[in-house]
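#lab-general

N.A. 3:47 PM
ok so I finally got the sequence cleaned up, no stray characters, all 624 residues accounted for. can someone with queue access submit it? mine expired

B.Y. 3:52 PM
send it over

N.A. 3:53 PM
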Amino acid sequence: MLEKIREGSQGVVAKTILILVILSFAFAGVSSYLGSNTGVPAAIVNGIEIPETELEQAFQNERASLKQQYGEMFDALSADDNYMQSIKASVLDRLVANTLVDQAASELGLRVSDEQIKQAIFSEPAFQTDGQFDNDRYQAVLRQLNYQPITFRNMMHVDMTRRQLLNALLGSDFVLDGEAKQLAEVQNQTRDIRYIAVDAMPFLATANVTTEDAKAYYDSNLTQFNSPEQVSLEYVELNVNDIAKDVLVDDAEISQNYEENQAQYQTPEKRLASHIYAASGDDAADKAKLEAIAARIAAGEDFAELAKTESEDQFSAEQGGQIDWFEQGVMDPAFDEALFGLEKGQVSGVVKGEFGFHIIKLVDIQLGAVAAFDDVKDKIIAQVKEKKALDIFYGLQTKLADTSYEIPDTLLDTANAVKKEVQTTGLFTRDNPPANLNKPALVKAAFSDQVLTSGMNSDVIELEPNHVVVIRVKQHLDAGTLSFDKVEMNIVQRLKQDKANETAREKAAGYMTQLKAGDFALADAQLITVSKLGRFNQDIDAAIANKAFKMPAPEAGAVSIDTAALGSGYAVVVLDKVNAAETIDVSALQSVKEGLARQYGQADYRAVIDSLKAKAKIEYPVAE
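B.Y. 4:20 PM
back already:
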């Protein structure tokens, strides 16, 4: 988890940190802090429920990660229900694995102390300035991530306990110097080869393919020429962003909005809080402890000194209990209500919060203030334009829905009603809709009975918030086999290429026979020599290099000879010698060892999870 923060903290955009940490937490099994357990659970692992809300949160985080990774291509992938269900199943499998690891750690009595958590955070570079822990930076990073210190500490506890078990199970893996050296030597050996490539392209001109040949191929391979169902659409589109471009706003409206809505432009009141915290897990003991401390404060003892010695939130304790500035509604309800019910300098009684008990002191108050007109003018203009555009949009959307429903066999009247034009698409399949309409709901509607079979206008389809369309079919092609006349030219080209390749193969086979007989004086070609060819050499065709490293080492005084299929043609490869790896430096050897260790660790982790699953009772309830 801290690795994710460290990576994120080096970026310039806080969103990067947020995404990385949320992804880490989502799969650390801690979303129980963020949601409630309601309804049928997604799974029950040895009696412990994984709530559907936890699965849904993890799944949405995985979707966000995939979208960031694949970009626009993910829109097409996400339209495939089977694909998305497989992703969701893999996410649930990870949550089950995490739960099994947590249960195993609990059974073994593994614990992580507050001091260990504290040291992990203190030593984290993301929270340091000039190599030293910086509490202000720590608080700032957590604010960027929208986490409170207490919540973050609890998440750290879960994460570190789990890692403690996994490190104990997997940390015993080691790679022998000998095996790493052996693998490094194999990877870094070189080969001396000669080769000749026979290009098929020159033989294309003489390759003869008749219509009968093409038809015979077509008849024997009809499944290759299946055509998926296709449709082209007419559609009318409404987008609030397009409407907003034409909205005009005058100065009088802006000034009036500012005067009437000054509460919107007022910076909220902030309060600086300190607390003394107890969260041992024993509510009665925690409450009793803080009640005793409250009595000492009432008797005149210093709040900050007591926080330093008695508070279980060690980070704030070092600051005399001081946490941070808070706006109303940021902390959990009980803490928030207590803090905003105090006068400056006043101390609360014992407050039961979401994760423990607090005594809260209001250290200071920063009153809110109304922002100057010039500072918020651009914001007001945007808001007024957006409101006007939305009012227009909602009115047009109603007309769009009513007219397309009342006159379902054309979109012309609908377009006229909303003062838009009827747009069209080319033919597309379920897998390649136009980019501007590439939404699962639209694709589903485009191939629905209402649109295809009945020929009616669709219902209003939302592409994005305040961005809608109504569609109707323009042309529909059923799935079927493409006719021969439409694919004949492609078949002819394919068969010509096959014949050219066959001619190249025969010529290469002739070269190989001659070379194996020991005659290297080729009449119409010359072998190309490559000395010390590396495994990943990019200067020659990859097929030739791959073949060279698959061929057996030649016996003394002999060579190995074989052919390799190229993209267009064939090659004859002569392996003259296998060269042992030259001196392998320490860093290269260490890299090989680390790679092997990762492979071993991954295999061991899978084995541990498989073993835990085999012994566990795992249920996947189905909602009735």
